[in-house]
Design goal:
Shape: globular
CATH architecture of the largest domain: Beta Barrel
Number of helices: 16
Number of domains: 2
Number of strands: 44
Structural class: mainly beta
Radius of gyration: 31 Å
CATH topology of the largest domain: Maltoporin, Chain A
Strand content: 35-45%
Length: 950
């Protein structure tokens, strides 16, 4: 760890030294002044202090422009406290494809609350399995005035989900004029990875003079598809050296390869009729699979915001706001490969909980392409399958309200509705029914003669009708919808006085009604889609909350705050979230602060209300049958060994033994149901820190944070349930009858002591099972100085992760915490951004240095994979390769205003064209596709022009 501290410490010391030089002139000219007084998130009490008792980071509009962030996801991703979460770029295999989320402190997307103008926004209609979250892709970055990040949790103020923190996105207010902006970005390395945006913002009315203001913003964004074959030459050569299969074509091709009897009488694979000469390599028909490996999905987004205010009189104002977004994300997928040597696929039928299986077969004897006289191996690529996924989402929020002043009290109330709908359509996977109709019955021991050769069926290597392809590869997916209605109100002011000043207070309440419906489509509910389970939900609930807050100025330099919120959800006792905090300012330059608060996350509708998730677990070890199966298989093989090789029963016994031992690695249907008895996840978070301002326009903050979250909602694994099967209630582990057992007949049951039938299904439910604890340090440093060459600025945002531990029931008799994951794979200790800026006249520019330290490749205690020993033994990697190396990137932004109304900007992401570290774990042994598109993006250039019409 000292090595990392030394390296990052040099960066921090350098920053402070630069800031000292920037501030020395200001310090000598005037005494240090108090911190600027502003209103920010973290308290319902109106106040003007820049730094309160809670640590808050503010990113202003000018900071956003200099950062080069083109989307809200990119902006949040640059925060040091931000950690990895769902991105629409990699959502093709997600339950919630087409969306992006935010996560703070490595606590996940359900523990970070997203607000828009201090109020909640609707969740994404599709849950990511059981995780409900806000899709930040529906929020336009050009409409943002500032972003406030509360980094101490906020359940005592804002309710459920605010465990790790709160991100409050504030849009423009009281704007007058018309501004248009166009933006275009592309890679300078390969002229790919294009995205474009057009934004129009208009505001009319002076609230002070005209008593009204109306603001409208529309943002149109589009991103192109990029396939890996277009950028394969730009991949880091280290990946090709590690995997011999990287960059190679596939013999699962179109129109394929078939086993044939050669002129010399031997059997061998040969190209099927119709294979182009240019595709025949080393005697086989080959296919460039990278043509359908996607590096970046296409996306089209339209977002609109319109808001208005009307000042009835000096003490009463009305306001209204409407937000609408439509997101379309289109993922392209690899064409299905087909070959009898591929493993079988096992899944379950949600309608019966029964076992289903599928495997590719060869071509039957007598097929026109088969001259062997027996079933022949066939390798094929369904290049006409039109594979991919499309997710289209419409989301909205509308509200209206009043706010004003009555006597010495300020108040505000609003009523609104929000929600959305998502249609997710996927194609490119076999329908069981369709396959049997247009190709044939793959379950028969001997294939029908017309398998792959039906008169009106699928034709190998030929044009197939839309009707045939529609039956073989039907569209399936989900229809999802969420709605929420709310009414809220709050009041703030002063009650009573202490010797050091008045007591501030705030109080309020809110009432909400939410509904969620997720419906599988296109054969998912009946198990017709090979290899796919399903998720469904149809639930609603109403809940309410009351909150209060008070500020006590005990001394002129000491302020104590107390806050509390009571949330009541159906089926759950009223939950109280308290908070205590202190703010001590012994001098004008120094502020000390501390908080302790309780957080919580209420079970969402997919976890506690009627919903079902059906999947299939392969490779399950059955403790009640595995030992018997092992002994039985051993005896069968012993019997086989006694027979001569010429005896046909020898191979039958060996095959029988292989089938029997499969009881030690069985496929089992997994049904996960809701649990109405779930408790909320709860947490306790603590912060302690300081803010220091040694000179005008120079400030530093440092905060220690510590969070313990318990009663985390999850489910026990199938293996965990099987290990305690005898203690479970009936209906959780379900088995077939022994009467018709296909593995053990009555004699074998007696001989090997088999008393339990084959596993059929395991029914689990969500439970409060796990815990997490994490801690770290945040450091912020800002400095600015006017000089003869312009205004110089410095801004450092740094987070150091001290500890991250997950509790496991597998440790000890009563469970325990695993290894410290800080510094392990995906959890760097250091993450920072240092920005150096300069502005003079018509030109403003900024250099941004992004850094995160090296990590190991291994994970927690329960996995031996990717340790240094495992890397050397099974991965073929040296010790220095068995790490994810430290990564640094430099960005540059410059803007120029030739006339007052026009601003031209250029942002270069990755100015030095630095490759990201090689990720051997993400790539995998024998990897084919690099794990990160950033490796081939190289240097990106974003150009924009903004014009103010008036």
């Amino acid at each position: 760890m000292s090595r990392y501290i030394d390296r990052q410490g040099k960066l921090a010391l350098t920053s402070i030294a630069i800031a000292s030089s920037l501030s020395c002139g200001a310090a000598s000219a005037a005494e240090p002044q108090q911190l600027e007084r502003v209103e920010i998130i973290g308290s319902h009490i109106k106040r003007v202090d820049a730094e309160g008792s809670s640590p808050v980071q503010v990113v202003r509009r000018e900071d956003i422009a200099k950062s080069g962030a083109g989307t809200v996801r990119e902006l949040i991703g640059q925060l040091a406290a931000s950690t990895g979460s769902l991105s629409d770029l990699g959502g093709s295999n997600s339950f919630a494809g087409g969306a992006s989320s935010a996560s703070l402190r490595n606590l996940g997307k359900q523990s970070t609350l997203i607000l828009l103008n201090f109020r909640r926004v609707a969740s994404y209609p599709l849950a990511d399995y059981n995780q409900v979250f806000t899709n930040i892709d529906t929020l336009p970055v050009e409409a943002v005035e500032r972003v406030e990040i509360l980094r101490s949790g906020g359940s005592a103020l804002y309710g459920s989900d605010a465990v790790a923190g709160v991100i409050n996105i504030i849009t423009r207010r009281d704007f007058q004029g018309v501004i248009g902006k166009v933006t275009s970005e592309t890679s300078l390395q390969n002229q790919r990875f294009d995205n474009k945006a057009v934004t129009l913002t208009a505001g009319y009315g002076d609230l002070a003079k005209d008593r009204f203001n109306v603001l409208a913003n529309i943002d149109v964004y589009t991103r192109e598809t990029v396939m890996w074959n277009e950028v394969l030459d730009d991949v880091n050569p280290a990946y090709g050296k590690y995997s011999s299969g990287f960059g190679t074509p596939s013999s699962y091709s179109y129109p394929g390869n078939v086993m044939a009897k050669l002129p010399n009488g031997k059997l061998g694979l040969v190209p099927a009729k119709g294979c182009a000469e240019s595709n025949i390599v080393n005697g086989l028909c080959q296919y460039n699979r990278y043509e359908r490996f996607e590096a970046q999905p296409a996306s089209d987004r339209v977002t609109g915001i319109i808001s208005g205010k009307y000042q009835f009189n000096a003490d009463l104002q009305g306001f209204a706001e409407a937000v609408f977004a439509r997101n379309k994300t289109a993922y392209k997928s690899a064409f299905p490969a087909y070959g009898s040597s591929q493993p079988a696929t096992v899944w379950g039928d949600p309608s019966t909980n029964g076992l289903l299986s599928y495997r590719d077969r060869g071509l039957p004897a007598g097929h026109p392409l088969n001259n062997t006289g027996a079933e022949a191996e066939f390798r094929y690529r369904f290049a006409d399958a039109d594979t991919g996924k499309k997710a289209t989402t419409d989301q909205y929020r509308v509200l209206a309200g009043l706010k004003g002043t009555t006597g010495n009290y300020d108040w505000e109330t609003a009523v609104g509705a929000m929600g959305g709908k998502t249609r997710s359509d996927q194609r490119g996977t076999f329908s069981v029914k369709g396959f049997k109709e247009v190709i044939g019955d793959y379950t028969k021991p001997v294939l029908d003669a017309d398998f792959f050769n039906k008169p009106n069926g699928y034709k190998i290597g030929q044009e197939n009708s839309a009707e045939v392809l529609g039956k073989l590869f039907p569209v399936f997916g989900y229809d999802a919808r969420v709605t929420q209605y709310f009414i809220d109100g709050r009041v703030s002011g002063e009650v009573g006085n202490l010797p050091a000043g008045p007591i501030g207070f705030a109080a309020g309440a809110e009432l909400r009604r939410e509904e969620m419906k997720i419906t599988p489509t296109g054969g998912l509910q009946g198990g017709d889609i090979v290899g796919y389970g399903s998720v469904s939900a149809n639930a609603s609930r109403s809940y309410s909350a009351f909150f209060g807050e008070a500020s006590f100025p005990v001394l002129k330099s000491l302020e104590l705050q107390a806050a509390g919120r009571v949330d009541k959800f159906p089926g759950i006792s009223a939950h109280f979230s308290p908070k205590l905090s202190a703010r001590f300012q012994p001098t004008r330059d120094l502020l000390l602060r501390a908080t302790i608060e309780s957080g919580f996350r209420a079970p969402n509708l997919t976890e506690s209300a009627p919903s079902t998730k059906f999947a299939f677990n392969n490779g399950v070890n059955d403790p009640k049958r595995c030992k018997a199966a092992t002994d039985y298989a051993r005896d069968l093989k012993a019997d086989a060994a006694k027979l001569p090789n010429s005896d046909p029963n020898k191979q039958l016994l060996i095959a029988r033994a292989d089938n029997v031992v499969g009881e030690c690695s069985r496929g089992v249907a997994s049904i996960v149901a809701h649990n109405p008895d779930l408790k909320p996840e709860t947490s306790v978070s603590r912060t302690f820190g300081m803010a220091f301002s040694p000179a005008k326009d120079v400030s530093m903050t440092i905060d220690y944070w510590h969070i313990v979250r318990k009663d985390e909602i999850g489910r026990k694994s199938t293996n965990d349930l099987l290990n305690v099967e005898d203690t479970l209630a009936p209906g959780i582990v379900n088995r077939d009858s022994l009467a018709n057992d296909p593995i053990f007949d009555a004699a074998a049951q007696t001989k090997y002591g088999v008393t339990a039938g084959r596993l059929a299904s395991v029914v689990a439910s969500f439970e409060n099972l796990f815990r997490t604890k994490t801690s770290g340090i945040d450091l912020g440093f800002k400095a600015q100085r006017s000089t003869d060459i312009g205004t110089l600025g410095l801004d450092l945002d740094l987070t150091y992760l001290i500890q991250l531990k997950n509790w496991s029931p597998l440790l000890g008799a009563n469970g325990g915490y695993g290894d410290n994951l800080a510094g392990r794979y995906s959890y760097p200790r250091w993450k920072s951004k240092l920005a150096l800026s300069h502005s003079a006249g018509k030109v403003a520019q900024q250099l941004s240095f992004h850094y995160q330290n090296s990590t190991a490749l291994n994970s927690d205690f329960n996995s031996t994979a990717w340790t240094e020993a495992d890397c050397a033994k099974t991965k073929g990697l040296q010790a220095d390769q068995c790490r994810f190396a430290a990564y640094s990137r430099v960005d540059y932004n410059i803007s120029y205003s030739p006339i007052k109304a026009l601003r031209l900007s250029a942002n270069v992401r990755n100015l030095l064209n630095t490759r990201p570290p090689v990720d051997y774990r993400g790539f995998g042994v024998g990897g084919i596709v690099p794990p990160d598109r950033e490796d081939v993006q190289g240097r990106l250039l974003r150009l924009s022009a903004e014009y103010t019409f008036y």
